[in-house]
Design brief:
homodimer; alpha/beta; Rossmann fold; Dehydroquinate synthase-like, alpha domain; 2 domains; six-stranded parallel sheet; two-stranded antiparallel sheet; 8 strands
């Protein structure tokens, strides 16, 4: 059944190979000083940085540089970004990159006018913002996280060995996001594939919950089928604009709250993956891939009807003459074959983890209760060992 | 291929059997005078009117009555509503009813501060609003039109025998809408079924266009499958909350611009159906149903791959051993069987049309060019005659 819920998502999206020009339409709505947030410099190599700076300058903006955002943005970097924003009284936080930059921009947004330490306030105590926000906008160069149209923000604290996400309220969502599929084409293939698995898992986390079928489940299946279809084209030819554009658009709708409407959600693969990430600093999408199958095999008996539906509707498994368990197992086998075909990392050993880290990863794993089985700490250890 | 597009939809939705209470959260954001828009009085019989008035009064609002909005709101009624809004300097247009009331509220919104005649300006000359808008909100009592989360507004002019829709910009969308599936349960079954077909056809109008498959097509198929599934439950038991809630939620997403993103769209069934409605004043959803199959049979050869996909993905047609034409025909046959099962009107004769009206209906049909076949006026007559 569709439970009760509210929905609002006011992010304006500009999508397409000409979308950067609409930055000219948006900039006049904001003040003069723009904090330009980006990562390790790939945007400088591929020309996106120069193109954006040109538009900012032609709109008379003061640019405050804030580069060097890491793939897993840290609490220390967040404090630095907040300081930059305060010292320069910035009017707009413009993230140029993937989900890391956008997540980081949101974390800065809620922290600039707040006296508390942002890591403690938002990622440990999970408080909500009670201060004026700085508007966030995003120029996306990697498809995967959905951060361009949601209020999620994941920050890592290496000292504390924690990687934690906070989903803020709708007021923290980007005001606008520019989605140009061509900007994602300069990514290394491994990053593209990690993003594709991130998308797929976002959908799974919302799909594998609840006992009833509802419209959200149908939409979830549609998004899964679309990303599976396009991923197989994109791994063969990363320059295929049609595939890359569908992947980008699927990523946005996989995690902008729509398919969670009226549902419980799971998110344990993310909790496990983020704990792996906190210990190994591995790529987010790959950490999810590495723990997914052991986790889904463990919970399958507790949500069998949905795993049967997943098998037949998403993977086209023929149910004739099979038990429900066989159908469900065939679905996970099809998913495993697809994962290997696109080339995701299938175990945490390949991400730098080993048996000696299992306890630390288990310690860093937050256990949630929305999925088909409430895990114990022993279950977490079992999944992690099966993921080695 | 996903073409270039922009997307923004900022309507806040409250969904569920407790959603009316959130009117208390929204009302303080608006001024003191509320124009309460409703239809023929069913909201008075089923208690919704009293519940809403109580909330308005407890929030200190002045209520300006604007009842009597007809199923096909007229240009004359629109002029009357504009006059009411002007004389009372209203701050919020609160529509309580189905798509007719919400469409009408949007038409009033764009016209209050405009000197031109609204019918001429918006529905004949298709101009855009260049004046201050009055905010619109909706308490939905019928699922179908999607008007609760879009900027569309259809108005009928009986003198001119025209029924014309204008899709305004995102600023005309309702600020908030309250969607309580229980409010739809007091509808006569025929109205429920007409709404279900309206939903289905909205999806078809966006699905049957373009040569390439993309994420929007996958989502469209998901919405079709969900509404088909729930419709069969709801016609057996209109009190089934799960089915009615899924139908309501599907209606919203079938026509809030999402599944048109990056696509051409068709809308010829709506043009034909609206022309039938302009001449007969028949229920909107039924006019669409009555002309759909003759239209789709005519265009099928021009969009055969999509009709094949429709057959296999939406209706589960087994393609083995069949030509593409056979598969596509089997899909339309499955659709026809479903239409008869839920009980929509299958021809325009049953809506009060006869052969003598065909020329007048054809005259009132606006021919669009986004579909698989650009119709001629002779084609329109052929479809209408086949619909008798």
């Amino acid at each position: 059944m569709l439970g009760n819920f509210s929905y609002k998502n006011a992010t304006k999206l500009y999508f397409g190979d000409d979308s950067l020009k609409y930055l000219n339409d948006e900039l006049p709505k904001y003040g003069k000083t723009v904090q330009l947030i980006y990562g390790g410099g790939s945007v400088k190599r591929n020309g996106i940085y120069d193109a954006v700076v040109d538009i900012l300058k032609s709109n008379g903006k003061n640019i405050v540089e804030d580069g060097g955002v890491m793939p897993n943005p840290t609490a220390d970097k967040l404090r630095e970004g907040v300081q930059i924003a305060r010292e320069n009284k910035v009017d707009l936080l413009l993230a140029m990159g993937g989900g890391s930059c956008c997540d980081y921009a949101k974390a800065v947004s809620v922290s600039v006018n707040c006296d508390d330490d942002p890591w403690e306030k938002y990622y440990i105590r999970f408080e909500e913002p009670d201060c004026e926000l700085i508007p966030v906008a995003c120029i996306l160069t990697m498809a995967g996280t959905g951060s361009e149209m949601n209020a999620g923000s994941v920050i890592t604290n290496h000292d504390q060995k924690l990687k934690i996400g906070h989903v803020f309220g709708e007021e923290v969502m980007p005001k606008f996001s520019i989605l140009n599929p061509k900007f994602t084409m300069s990514l290394p293939k491994r990053q593209m594939v990690a993003g594709i698995y991130d998308i797929f898992n976002h959908i799974c986390e919302q799909y594998f919950s609840g006992e009833d079928d509802n419209t959200s489940d149908y939409i979830a299946e549609a998004l899964m089928k679309s990303v599976i279809h396009s991923s197989l084209i994109a791994v063969e030819n990363p320059e295929d604009y049609e595939a890359r554009s569908n992947i980008m658009w699927t990523a946005t709708w996989a995690l902008n709250t729509l398919i969670a409407c009226g549902k419980e959600t799971d998110w344990m693969v993310h909790m496990l993956g983020q704990a792996v990430g906190a210990i190994t600093d591995a790529t987010h999408g790959m950490t999810l891939a590495a723990v997914s199958l052991p986790y889904y095999k463990m919970i399958m008996p507790y949500g069998l009807p949905k795993f049967v539906r997943f098998a037949t509707e998403v993977w086209g498994v023929d149910p004739n003459g099979k038990t429900d368990e066989q159908i469900a197992c065939d679905g996970l086998a099809a998913m495993e074959a697809w994962m290997k075909q696109i080339g995701v990392t299938m175990n945490i050993t390949d991400l730098g983890a080993d048996e000696s880290m299992i306890e630390a990863i288990a310690d860093a794993t937050i256990i949630l209760d929305g999925g088909y089985k409430q895990l114990t700490r022993d279950d977490v250890v079992t999944v992690l060992k099966a993921s080695l």
